[in-house]
Design brief:
Strands 1, 2, 3, 4, 7, 10, 11, 12, 13 and 14 form a ten-stranded mixed beta sheet that branches. A two-stranded antiparallel sheet has the order 5-6. A two-stranded antiparallel ribbon has the order 8-9. It has two domains: 90 residues, Pseudouridine synthase, CATH 3.30.2350; 107 residues, Pseudouridine synthase. By secondary structure, it is an alpha+beta fold. It is built from eight helices and 14 strands. The chain is 25% helix and 33% strand. The N terminus is likely disordered. The radius of gyration is 19 Å and the shape is globular.
Length: 241
């Protein structure tokens, strides 16, 4: 069945602002684009900024393909504070002194997270157990058994060393919780840590430099927005629809 002639279809790259959920971004764009057939490929936490792949019209069918692609991030880890959510949005549960680590010690600890591994998902996540998202149980103070998930870290490097803050660049597989990597680094070092800032800079070949901010999108006409849509056959050339 052919799409109606005026139906938008394609992939729109958006630079998500902080304090917006991925759902908030979709809701705002649904109003602007005047379509209900819209979604995203790969959730970003409210605190995080950066590349959010928006799927419009028939492009929603390639969601699973795009979600499966590797992601790249930059961010900041703060040593010495452990939060219940493993990031800056959570409550500080414990504060520990931060030893005078050298840059080489930190780099060695970061490098130990390279490669294939299993990661324990955090309680503050949307993973469902018995139909209930884990974050709802976490808010009630419940802790439940989770299954570790296979992930791959293909690049993880320190880009700024300024204790207690560490800036990093990361490339990882789908399903990787970056805040859990930050938490686990703190556990390895013994001083505790949480993720204090995160920005997604790329998903495979899609780069943040190609993205529009929500304000930029709001200022464009619908025909101009349509010109920015990446066709399905370009976004997912190996997927047959």
């Amino acid at each position: 069945m052919m799409s109606p002639p005026n139906e938008m279809c394609g992939v729109l790259l958006v630079d998500k602002p902080t304090d917006h959920t991925s759902h908030d971004v979709v809701a705002r764009l649904r109003g602007k684009l005047k379509t209900r057939k819209i979604g995203h490929a790969g959730t970003l936490d409210p605190m995080a900024t950066g590349l959010l792949i928006i799927l419009v019209g028939k492009a929603t069918r390639i969601s699973q393909y795009l979600i499966s692609l590797d992601k790249e991030y930059t961010g900041t880890i703060e040593l010495g504070k452990i939060t219940d959510s493993q990031d800056a949005e959570g409550q500080v549960m414990e504060t520990r002194p931060v030893p005078a680590y050298t840059q080489k010690e930190i780099e060695a600890a970061i490098q130990s997270f390279m490669g294939d591994q299993y990661q324990m998902p955090p309680m503050y996540s949307a993973i469902k157990i018995d139909g209930v998202p884990l974050y709802k149980k976490a808010r009630k103070g419940e802790e439940v058994v989770r299954e570790p998930r296979f992930i791959r870290v293909s690049a993880y490097e320190l880009t700024r060393f300024a204790l207690p803050h560490l800036d990093f660049r990361l490339r990882c597989s789908k399903g990787t919780y970056v805040r859990t990597l930050a938490h686990d680094l703190g556990q390895k070092l013994g001083c505790g840590a949480h993720l204090s800032a995160l920005r997604r800079t790329a998903t495979d070949r899609f780069n943040i430099s190609q993205a529009l901010t929500l304000d930029e999108i709001q200022s464009l006409s619908l025909p101009d927005i349509e010109k920015r849509l990446i066709p399905i056959h370009e976004a997912a050339p190996s997927v047959a629809l």
